[in-house]
Amino acid sequence: xxxFSLYAxxxxxxxxxxxxxxxxxxxxxxxxxxxIPTEHQANVFGRLDEHLKKVERTLHVSLISRDDSLKIxxxxxxxxxxxxxxxxxxxxxxRGNEITEQNVDYALALSMEGAEDxxxxxxxxxxxxxxxxxxxxxxxxxxxxxxxxxxxxMIVFGVxxxxxxxxxxxxxxxxxxxxxxxxxxxxxxxxxxxxGENLGFLPGDLQQKIDPYLRPLYDALYQIMGADSFQHxxxxxxxxxxxxxxxxxxxxxxxxxxxxxxxxTTPAQMKMFLTRIGFGSKVIxxxxxxQKDLPAGQLSGLDVALRVLRDVEGIRTxxxxxxxxxxxxxxxxxVEAYEAYEARQASHRPPDARPQRPxxxxxxxxxxxxx
Length: 371
Prior knowledge:
The chain has two domains: 16-124, 2-Layer Sandwich (Ribosomal Protein S8, Chain: A, domain 1), CATH 3.30.1370; 128-333, P-loop containing nucleotide triphosphate hydrolases (Rossmann fold), CATH 3.40.50.300. 42% of the residues lie in helices and 15% in strands. It has helices at residues 16-24, 38-45, 50-59, 76-94, 101-112, 118-124, 141-152, 166-179, 206-225, 227-235, 267-274, 301-308, 329-348; strands at 30-35, 62-66, 69-74, 128-129, 135-136, 155-159, 185-190, 239-243, 255-259, 282-287, 315-319, 363-364, 369-370. The chain has a six-stranded parallel beta sheet with strand order 8-7-9-10-6-11. A three-stranded antiparallel beta sheet has the order 1-3-2, with helices on one face. Strands 4-5 form a two-stranded antiparallel ribbon. The protein is globular and about 70 Å long. The termini are far apart. Residues 1-11, 195-199 and 353-358 have low confidence and may be disordered.
């Protein structure tokens, strides 16, 4: 067992004074070495060593870089976690991945649960590649469960906050199924409703009027397929992007169908959509129950469907959380802050008063009228 030296340095975030104080308090520590090839150091360390600083702050270890090695100093448990996290990040880098802050944050979160190796398992599951060659794959355990559910079930509800990849991963699965010949067409739809404001009358023909509502779907298609491929398949009717209202009266056979922003459907719209599904089709329904743009007092079709269909065989619901947010880390903190705020508001809200029974009307002969 080794002990901290009075002269130990912690260049990435833990001050030497703290190391010295720990030595005085008699806290034992061990040293561990991780070898990092020179060509991968910039990727693993991060800009201005920000990734190493985060590992130090989170796991309470000290990291010292020397040539091709990185010395880890900390308690046995903390040093062991740090070594496993760094080893996995190095492996991801060697596989050609760019190490982002999200990768580091999630690897650290998994280390607290003793599931560090799940990072490497997720990296093996490549759904498809974008037009630029970048692989599309799950980045969290929740996303991995979501992809598995899509592969194994006919209808999947993907519910969770913004930034969890519900629509993007669903789009990737649809495009790959189309390329593999599992389905003959892709149908993407969402309700045409403004996000909390009235845009008024939009210029142009019908397609130009509805395009702004469908733009997020186009963006994902262009990134994965490319504009030319999408345009070619769209002209042949193999890929269709349309508002939900266009689905009434149709039977959708042998298609991969994605309903986005389902929290903005009414119960009648949701029932109409679900009864359009034909043979050989697969359906993904995505939504964020905290971001409804329906009129006040209007029930959400997504909320009703989740209750009605929860025990139906062949239908699976995957609930993603703020841990599955893969946008900028600030988005994850924003989601967490709103969830905490809404929980506080709910705890302080007075219980709903019981509805009062209407007063019975009685007849008073002396007054010759009902009172």
